[in-house]
Design goal:
single chain; 259 residues; alpha+beta; Translation Initiation Factor IF3; Alpha-Beta Plaits; 5-stranded antiparallel sheet; 4-stranded antiparallel sheet; elongated
């Protein structure tokens, strides 16, 4: 008997399987590529959107102002005398300094608030270039009494009546008058910065409303410089000679704009 025929894979079937594998492989690769492209597109789109949002901001300025009263005063009172007799000129200066001291104490200022500076002597004949008439008033002696006190109103009143000293023979040198200062700046800084920031945000909100946006977080901020000057912006030649002061700060702030 002849053995039964061996049953094996059809030659036609063996030829089809590689084609099917290539088809399936190509299909899977196409799906992976499509998913990757879609995901990448989403990430890129999110990145562009975030980038656009990060680039959208507005720069505004906020102003805060306060009126304050000086709480410390310096008043240098310089007296001078001239003559050819050094001792006599010195005695004249001493009398002037004593007159100034008595006057200030009489105005309600304590002696502890007064400081006598050093005596300055200028011998005109000892100068390399002698001015004309130096032999008529060879010596010039000067001394300064400085008042330092928080009693600003008393000093203002005394300064207004300082002409009484001239009647007593006191000769004043160049002084410039009282200098009034405000020392409480650090105490009002936080509130003024908050006020300036609030004003800046109000300006940013107006801009955002006009551009169909809303104000986001602060991107960058510059506190600005605090300035202390005369309350009315004017002075009689001495900007520190006013008791009433204006404290001002201008802050520059950048806010993000969000759609």
């Amino acid at each position: 008997m002849m053995p039964p025929p061996t049953v094996g894979p059809s030659p036609e079937r063996n030829l089809m399987m590689p084609d099917q594998l290539r088809y399936i492989t190509t299909l899977v690769a196409a799906v992976v590529v499509a998913v990757s492209v879609a995901a990448a597109g989403k990430f890129v789109g999110d990145g562009f959107r975030q980038g656009r949002e990060a680039d959208r901001y507005v720069t505004v300025k906020g102003v805060a102002e306060r009126t304050v009263t000086a709480d410390l005063v310096f008043w240098p009172i310089r007296v001078t005398a001239t003559g050819n007799d050094l001792g006599a000129v010195q005695a004249k200066v001493d009398r002037s300094v004593d007159a100034v001291t008595v006057f200030l104490v009489g105005e309600g200022l304590p002696k502890e608030a007064l400081d006598r500076g050093r005596v300055e002597v200028n011998d005109l004949l000892a100068q390399p270039y002698r001015p004309e008439g130096a032999d008529q008033a060879r010596y010039i002696i000067a001394q300064t009494v400085t008042v330092r006190t928080p009693e600003v109103e008393k000093v203002r009143a005394a300064s207004a009546r300082s002409g009484e000293l001239v009647k007593l023979g006191v000769v004043f040198g160049e002084t410039g008058g009282p200098v009034y200062a405000f020392t409480g700046l650090n105490g009002i800084k936080p509130a003024m910065i908050a006020e300036a920031t609030k004003a800046a945000r109000a300006g940013a909100e107006q801009f955002a409303a006009d551009s169909a946006s809303r104000v986001g977080a602060i991107r960058q901020a510059n506190q600005g410089v605090f300035t202390v000057g005369p309350r009315d912006g004017m002075s009689s030649g001495n900007p520190d000679g006013e008791i009433e002061k204006s404290v001002r700060v201008v802050s520059t702030i950048e806010f993000f704009l969000v759609e």
